[in-house]
Q: What sequence folds into this?
């Protein structure tokens, strides 16, 4: 195992792009990407460019369980609870959706209506808008600010990658996947991550309340 | 007689010109190779001890080179060094280039310092997608190697390369000397490559730690060991990671053959 560890250390090393990497190539410091990390603390205005950490930069076309077209940036200005699941998953996913519900319910009633919940399916083949509607009805979550959403396999893969959600389709049509309920701030930047199933939601709920109240106190 | 000779020469010259144009305009990357359906012992078996099935697909015969990636960046300015979003890559993005083009003489080298997002977007632009982990590994082990001893020897070779690959001495695409039975070049001993699901979900009890290799190794040939090291190295990357030894190639669904530069 020590051998493997040293191999990994080696691979990490070249992964870190050591300085020698650049010595003989022309260094292009002047071409470096502009520095980022500025966080837009100003109030929300849709006309402003997206925060450069915003998940909404992914764009793409999405469709919800009502058959309506969804743009990610339509959620700008509101906190979002984001979860990835799929409809034919009978064991884990209902818990994930329930966790999203628990988080939603935990948010103070006065600010809850400004929160959107977006549940994105892995299964872009089976989970048509009709199937998603059935799912929403069955879970009694066909609420106005809840969106059960599908798109192309590529869009779903990109979103999962940004969120750090791992999944793969099995040959039996089911999916292996990791479990995440994420909170996006009003800019679409990931603000909280609840990993696993049945985890406490109070802290994330508090963060959502702060996001909303920060604006109200202005 | 004389006139006829001139004709033949002029035809020969124009044929040569055509050939020259062809190699000048059709980049190596546009050559796609069919990979037949099959199954292989994945490091992440769906059913323990059994092979995973892989459906037929097409794959670039070689990794994407700098010249091809330059075409993409020229067409999609949001992927140029000065415009790319920091959500999608690091400041090391394309750092081996001089400005918005590859350094002289490096056009045919595999592109590197590329994030997962950049690689995935390139493949979409090219009418394809990144290969899945199972597709890539399955295609990579379709080699004309018969005996256990030869596999072990090849495995040690690959391991040796994996642990000593030097970003400052990058050969051109096609120069690894390794070709699969399907005609895919450079899957070993040229550059590490992104795959679509480079971090597959792990089964219960299988976490990304130093014990993982032992559990993944299974049957324990040298080649298997090399593929474990390759896989764990890929799993150690973040999607925005860029390194001097990490490039990619694209895969294509069989039904989408012939597509190119498709826009969504």
A:
């Amino acid at each position: 195992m020590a051998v493997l560890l040293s191999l990994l250390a080696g691979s990490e090393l070249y992964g870190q792009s050591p300085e020698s990497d650049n010595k003989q190539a022309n260094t292009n410091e002047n071409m470096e990407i502009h520095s980022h990390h500025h966080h837009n603390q100003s109030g929300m205005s849709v006309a402003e460019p997206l925060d450069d950490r915003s998940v909404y930069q992914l764009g793409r076309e999405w469709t919800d369980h009502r058959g309506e077209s969804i743009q990610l940036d339509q959620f700008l200005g509101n906190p979002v609870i984001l979860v990835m699941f799929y409809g034919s998953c009978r064991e884990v996913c209902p818990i994930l959706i329930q966790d999203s519900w628990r988080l939603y319910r935990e948010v103070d009633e006065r600010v809850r209506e400004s929160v959107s919940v977006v549940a994105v399916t892995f299964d872009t083949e089976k989970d048509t808008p009709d199937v998603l509607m059935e799912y929403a009805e069955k879970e009694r979550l066909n609420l106005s600010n809840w969106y059960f959403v599908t798109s192309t396999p590529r869009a779903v893969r990109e979103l999962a990658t940004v969120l750090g959600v791992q999944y793969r389709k099995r040959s039996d049509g089911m999916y292996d996947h990791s479990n995440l309920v994420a909170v996006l701030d009003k800019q679409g930047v990931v603000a909280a991550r609840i990993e696993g199933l049945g985890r406490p939601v109070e802290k994330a709920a508090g963060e959502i309340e702060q996001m909303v109240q920060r604006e109200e106190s202005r | 007689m004389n006139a006829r000779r001139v004709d033949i020469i002029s035809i020969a010259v124009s044929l040569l010109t055509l050939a020259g144009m062809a190699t000048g305009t059709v980049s190596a990357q546009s050559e796609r190779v069919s990979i037949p359906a099959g199954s292989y012992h994945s490091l992440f078996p769906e059913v323990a001890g059994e092979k995973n099935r892989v459906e037929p697909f097409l794959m670039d015969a070689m990794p994407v080179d700098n010249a091809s990636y330059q075409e993409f960046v020229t067409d999609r300015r949001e992927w140029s060094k000065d415009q790319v979003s920091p959500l999608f890559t690091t400041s090391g993005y394309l750092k081996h280039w001089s400005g918005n083009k590859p350094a002289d003489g490096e056009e045919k080298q595999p592109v590197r310092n590329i994030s997962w997002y950049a690689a995935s977007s390139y493949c979409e632009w090219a009418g394809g997608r990144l290969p899945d982990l199972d597709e890539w590994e399955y295609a990579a082990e379709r080699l004309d190697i018969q005996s256990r001893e030869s596999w072990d020897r090849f495995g040690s070779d690959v391991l040796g390369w994996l642990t000593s690959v030097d970003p400052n001495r990058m050969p051109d695409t096609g120069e690894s000397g390794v070709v699969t039975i399907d005609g895919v070049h450079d899957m070993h001993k040229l550059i590490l490559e992104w795959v679509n699901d480079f971090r597959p979900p792990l089964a219960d009890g299988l976490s990304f730690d130093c014990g993982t290799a032992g559990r993944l190794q299974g049957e324990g040939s040298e080649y298997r060991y090399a593929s474990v090291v390759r896989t764990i190295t890929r799993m150690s990357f973040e999607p925005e990671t860029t390194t001097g030894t990490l490039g990619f190639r694209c895969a294509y669904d069989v039904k989408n053959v012939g597509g190119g530069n498709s826009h969504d």
Residues 179 and 196 of chain A are 5 Å apart (CA to CA).
